[in-house]
Amino acid sequence: MRYAILSDIHANLDAFEAVIESLRDDSVDRYLCLGDIVGYGARPRECLDLIQSISYRTVAGNHDFAALGKIEIDSFNTYARQATIWTRESLSESDRAYLESLPLVEHLEGFSIVHGTLYSPELFDYVQTSYDAYLSMCEMPGEVCFFGHSHVPITFIRQRFITYSLAGEIDVERGTSVLVNVGSVGQPRDNNPQAAYALFDTDRRKTWSRRVH
Ligand code: ZN
Predict the structure, then answer these.
(1) Which pLDDT value is given to residue 213?
(2) Where would you tag: which of 23, 106, 138, 157 has the fewest CB atoms within 10 A of its CB?
(3) For the chain, which domains are there?
(4) Can you tell me the distance from the alpha carbon of 82 to that of 73, in angstroms, rounded to the nearest whole number?
(5) In what order do the strands lie in the sheet with 162-165?
(6) Which tens digit of pLDDT belongs to each residue from 24-37?
(7) From the CA of 152, how far away is ligand 1's center (Å)?
(8) Which of 114, 95, 110, 89 lies closest to 33, judged by CA?
(9) Distance 9 CA to ligand 1 centre (A)
(10) Ligand 1 centroid vs 143 CA: distance in angstroms?
């Protein structure tokens, strides 16, 4: 099974469509979405429609919860706060119902998906250090977990120790734990403006970190 895993679209329809277009020849079996479909960008409703039409499983991000009024936005920066207020007014009842239906974590065939951390997904903590990665790895039922939230693509790998990799291609070796931040479709924050996402081939046991050129 070949999965395309998208996160942090943030209502950026142009970037979202460019990602879908870049995957045209990749024989993707299923799309997954790691949340923050809305917030910041100007096309929340179109992005919600598109993700609902293609995604096999989607989990909620903090901006999705903020758009529903489920979390406080006092800690958001000015742009995020204003975008949230605008997004709240823009969404329809059915948009809201869809966001309400999203779980925080999904466990699939040997891997998991979450927006922030597996140890307390409802807090939307960031995984930035090896220790943060370790805490999520302790909660992984399988060998692989995909997450987002920081908008920075990076893969943490636990063998004897936990290391990280910025490589585009990672082999999932047996007995290891692999925690993959897929980066952001709509608002990359790693000084590379190209939309980011990941591919995962469960038969070949490989993940790829991709940018849209
Ligand atoms: Zn985000």
Answers:
(1) 79
(2) 138
(3) 2-212 (3.60.21.10)
(4) 10
(5) 105-107, 111-114, 144-147, 177-181, 154-158, 162-165
(6) 999 999 999 999 99
(7) 10
(8) 114
(9) 8
(10) 24
